[in-house]
Inverse folding.
């Protein structure tokens, strides 16, 4: 699969694949005691704990891998939600009459002016308790403990679709003037058939590229919110919450640098791989379009 990608995209894709495989499977190799509080609190990196331990004596490398699961889950699911909403909205706006298009894009401009942080806080406070009550009434215990995470994913996906909508709308405005779209209209194909058969397939490449760029944006937003204590809550952890714990442990008398360094490296490698992959794919599509 990697060999089918453009050459500049292969190394970022390989790094990303290694990172995803690591967070999914490496935690299974750790002893169960590494996830439990221990006596070695704030132990520096060594042979027993390669990345040291945290305040409660838990292995930091294991926590980084488990936190990576949450961060990547939020990034992929949030980007997928933004992809669905943004693609549908952009397709309809770009293919509609100019008056409808202008109204829809002005609505996007209004949403751009709403601060993201305020929107997410309102969303969490408005729906978290209601979702927990609904989950309790249906016996969904897993959702009770993960309700905040689910709402965080939904809210991040809802606010990230704006850029995707603008990109898809711009491409749709260009594609709808192509000869094959005019021929489809002459042959009597309906509006929704033209969207599904002619416009959407030709947008697949650019949508895939910006999906790879939307994932790191969602991960950064989640890390920022979790760093402020507004995102993922204990006992769950993400790279942002790990950075928050590390920053809280640093003081003028003692600096436990590993609590900041290693989560930062994991976050940085993942973001660079995603951005490099998206940029390489974008360049490849632009070169083919010339």
């Amino acid at each position: 699969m990697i060999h089918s990608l453009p050459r500049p995209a292969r190394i970022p894709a390989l790094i990303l694949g290694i990172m995803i495989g690591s967070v999914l499977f490496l935690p299974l190799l750790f002893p169960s005691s590494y996830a439990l509080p221990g006596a070695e609190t704030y132990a520096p990196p060594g042979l027993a704990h390669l990345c040291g331990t945290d305040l409660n004596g838990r292995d930091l490398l294991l926590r980084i891998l488990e936190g990576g699961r949450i961060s990547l889950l939020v990034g992929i699911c949030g980007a997928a939600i933004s992809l669905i909403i943004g693609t549908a909205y952009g397709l309809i706006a770009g293919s509609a009459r100019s008056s409808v298009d202008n109204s829809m894009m002005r609505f996007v401009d209004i949403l751009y002016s709403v601060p993201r942080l305020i929107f997410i806080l309102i969303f969490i406070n408005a729906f978290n308790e209601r979702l927990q009550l609904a989950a309790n009434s249906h016996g969904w215990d897993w959702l009770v403990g993960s309700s905040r995470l689910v709402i965080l994913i939904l809210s991040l996906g809802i606010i990230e679709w704006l850029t995707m909508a603008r990109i898809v709308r711009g491409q749709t405005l260009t594609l709808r003037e192509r000869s094959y779209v005019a021929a489809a209209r002459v042959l009597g194909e309906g509006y929704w058939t033209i969207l599904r058969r002619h416009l959407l397939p030709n947008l697949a490449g650019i949508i895939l590229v910006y999906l790879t760029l939307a994932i790191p944006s969602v991960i950064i937003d989640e890390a920022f919110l979790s760093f402020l204590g507004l995102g993922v809550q204990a006992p769950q952890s993400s790279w942002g919450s790990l950075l928050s714990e590390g920053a809280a442990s640093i003081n003028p008398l003692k600096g436990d640098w590993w609590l900041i360094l290693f989560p930062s490296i994991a976050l940085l490698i993942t973001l660079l791989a995603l951005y490099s992959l998206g940029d390489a794919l974008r360049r490849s599509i632009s070169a083919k379009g010339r």
Summary: The chain has a mean pLDDT of 86. The CA atoms of residues 1 and 244 lie 37 Å apart.
